[in-house]
Amino acid sequence: MRDDLASSVTGAAPSKAALTLWYETPAREWVEALPVGSGRLGAMVFGGVGQERLSLNEDTLWAGGPYDPSNPEALSALSEVRRLIFEGQYRQAQELAGAKMMAKPLWQMPYQAFGDLRLAFAALEPYEHYRRELDLDTAVVATSFTSGGVFYRRAVFASPINQVIVVRLTSKEAKRISFDFSLVTPHRAETEIEGTHTLVVRGKNGAAHGVGGALRFVARAHVMASGGSSFGGNGLISVRGADSATIVLALATSYRSFCDVSGDPERTTARQIAEARQKGYEALLGDHIAEHQRLFRRVSIDLGRTDAKSRPTDARVRDSQGTPDPELAALYFQFARYLLISSSRPGTQPANLQGLWNESLDPPWGSKYTININTEMNYWLAESTNLGECVDPLISLVRDLAETGARTAKIHYGARGWVAHHNTDLWRAAAPVDGSEWGLWPTGGAWLCLHLWDHFAFSGDRAFLAAVYPLLKGAAEFFLDSLVEEPRHKWLVTCPSLSPENAHPAGAALCAGPAMDSQILRDLFAHCIEAAEILGTDAAFRNDLARARVQLAPDQIGAAGQLQEWLDDWDLQAPEMHHRHVSHLYGVFPSGQIDVQTTPELARAARASLELRGDESTGWGIAWRLNLWARLGEGERAHQMVRMLLGPERTYPNLFDAHPPFQIDGNFGGAAGIAEMLMQSHGGTIHLLPALPKAWPTGAVRGLVARGGFEVDIEWQGGVLDSAMIASRRGGAAIVRFGESELELRVEAGDRARVLFDGSTLRQGG
Ligand code: FUC
User: Fold this and answer.
1) Is the CB of 375 inside a 6 Å radius of any atom of ligand 1?
2) What is the pTM of this model?
3) Contact 172, 180 (CB under 8 A)
4) How much is the pLDDT for 1?
5) Residue 17 — very low, low, confident or very high, per pLDDT cuts 50/70/90?
6) Which residue range(s) make up the domain with 84?
7) What does the alpha-carbon distance between residue 55 and residue 75 come to, in Å, rounded to a whole number?
């Protein structure tokens, strides 16, 4: 059923130019290079002519090994820290918590570069007619040029089917392919040449923060040349006078899970190379493209056209602040979908702070999973842009955290269930890290649970809900045991906690009951109750949750009309008024607790908070604001955020988001925000074009997904809805809305309904 829905949605192949990033010169820096990824294997392709570099990644190559950072001393300080907080001695509480309650070691393990595949070519300079490009529709990076009158082309892709990176070298004339290639790695490793066609690097990962390296890794590169000769020596394989050549590259580590490093990368890579050789280049490419397009082509988008796309992508980013270029926003949207497909597939690690792509051993913030916004933002686009299966690795991460976080819950809080704080890593460390003013925030795991619920809400898959219910329940149990009554109103609050990473005017970040925590817990408890009802289980537990839920601290409106970030009305005295985090607006987005229709007063207060915070921020900070403005129905403000995000300050030449430095959350959050401008489905309605800006007067989007399992196509003209097609995967009722007009629909499973707008009302079409 899904397949025929998808094919009707996609129709004809999309225009290649609209889906291509392209450049007239090789990349000089890593943020100019173009990414490919199989979900697990990544490469940044520089497109050099005489010297080509592929910067490589494998998503389990992190520092360290299995470790448990729980701190047995933590629990003994808990009640004293709480007492200090409730007495207003925040600084003392923060110090004591910093000394006693934090993880050991205090920092987690970084994600690390694998190394480079380097190719060296003689006699290709000078060259002309240079072009390198990333075709989002085929997921192939190609570099082409002419040298000595001969046309050369190189293609690179990372196959999700065969789990190898493939480099194909061709020219228009026979016998022109001559080069040396090598693998270099910054880790402890040895290189061996096997025969005349294969290069093998074997190594070990390193230690970090006192946790020893426990992983072995293998890289195996094999060249298949047609014509010419190959030979190996001195760590190089050389090819001379071939008509064409294909390098297949396999990378693997011994990682099997956060507590098991007994994998056999030697065998895995040998098998992958043998299978790839047997398949041959054309079939490798064909299978790769088919699998990529199965996901990628589910959604198409047209926000209007100009001839800006005739210019190289870096020039468009440079000019984006002054020149209208709606197709750049569309390209950015599809690039984010491409990045998620390439960095997060069933069985791989979730997309980390840099997705999959990292050239450093010591990347910014460890290139880990920062779960006080960044990891969640990575997945905001997944369900609505029809990439539900890409959430799978995040669900597995939550499953792991429910195990490691159960120890942390018990050891640090004496509580049942499981907890995770503001960061985690490959080893699923769950205890608070970095410093109490950032790390002592117990709601990271609870926030991740929203993604489990949403996966059910979008798919309607009850078997999935039954499978993840124990994870939701464990997350909620932790809070039933660890919430405390604050003395003034007797509200139930988290304590100690903080409003991610913002300090309040009492000289600390540590506090009780920040607004975000109560909002997250309102969602978690509601979802847990609803899941238990659907599954017909846990009646007593449901009652416990319902009782606790009404006692959670409510959202409050402060003296400036703003939504209060903390229990106290501190917002206007906080040292960083324009802080990048807008945690207390979680209730507006990604949650739907606060909404213009259903809670207009709180929505006005949220708006006031957003104005106070200001629009200027880091990449992801702008992307969050974009989603918030979209939810508040402000198309012009949302579009302003899109424009700011696409400018050279926040977007590198290769379209990677600039925090700065590179952080992928802005790419994903930006695409999610564009989707929210065109369609929203929280609160039980399918809202068409809720935040359409004047800059996109005419356009179409196909294949977006709404909660309830609907696929939605929308066409609009002159800023007004023209028609929509609502297809149902599972059958069900929906209320469709455009402007003030609403229409109730029932669509059978596998069927679709056309919705038309006649200028004032919505009606069902034939
Ligand atoms: C949070 C943010 C920073 C950065 C880091 C990875 O700590 O506050 O801006 O994005 O995560």
Assistant:
1) no
2) 0.97
3) no
4) 29
5) confident
6) 74-108+344-614
7) 44
Is ligand 1 within 6 A of the CB of residue 378?
Answer: no
Question: What is the rounded average pLDDT of the residues 435-463?
Answer: 98
| Cβ-count burial 569-581 (b if 16+ within 10 Å, e if not) | ebbeebeeeebbb
Q: What percent of the chain is modeled with pLDDT above 90?
A: 96
Instruction: For residue 225, give the H/E element and its range.
Output: strand 216-226
Q: How many whole angstroms separate alpha carbon 388 and alpha carbon 612?
A: 35
Of 614, 636, 666, the residue that ends a domain is: 614
Compute, in angstroms, the gap from residue 204 CA to the centroid of ligand 1.
29
Task: Note whether residue 567 is domain-resident.
Answer: yes
262: left (phi over 0), alpha (psi -120 to 50) or beta: alpha
Ligand 1 atom nearest to 618, measured from its CA: 9
Which of 108, 373, 616, 622 is the pocket-test mutation for ligand 1 (most atoms within 8 Å of CB)? 373
Q: Classify residue 330: in a domain, yes or no.
A: no
Smallest Cα–Cα separation from 95: which of 79, 84, 107?
84
> Could you tell me the CA-to-CA distances from 3 to 7, 294, 297, 753 in Å, in that order?
6, 9, 11, 18
pLDDT at 7 over 80: no
Domain end (from 570, 598, 614)? 614
CB 130 within 8 A of CB 49: yes
Q: How does 681-715 read in b/e, with b if 16+ C-beta sit within 10 Å?
A: bbeebbbbbbbbbebbebbbbbbbbbbbbbbbbbe
Q: Beta strands of 531-683 (E only): which ranges?
A: 679-680
Name the residue of 663, 664, 667, 668 to mutate for ligand 1: max ligand atoms within 8 A of Cβ.
663
What are the tens digits of pLDDT across the range 678-697?
999 998 999 999 999 999 99
* CB of residue 376 inside a 6 A radius of ligand 1: no
Alpha-carbon span 708 to 686, nearest angstrom: 10
Residue with CA at minimum distance from ligand 1 atom 6: 365
- pLDDT band at residue 12, thresholds of 50, 70 and 90? very low
pLDDT at site 216: 98
Mutation to probe ligand 1, out of 659, 662, 665 (largest number of atoms < 8 A from CB):
659
Say yes or no: 375 and 495 in one domain.
yes
747 and 726 Cβ atoms separated by less than 8 Å: yes
Claim to verify: residue 595 and residue 549 sit in the same structural domain: yes
649 in any annotated domain: no
Instruction: Name the nearest CA neighbour of 132 among 46, 51, 54, 53.
Output: 46
The domain spanning residue 509 has which CATH number?
1.50.10.10
The pLDDT value recorded for residue 16 is: 87
| Ligand 1 near 501 CB (within 6 A) | yes
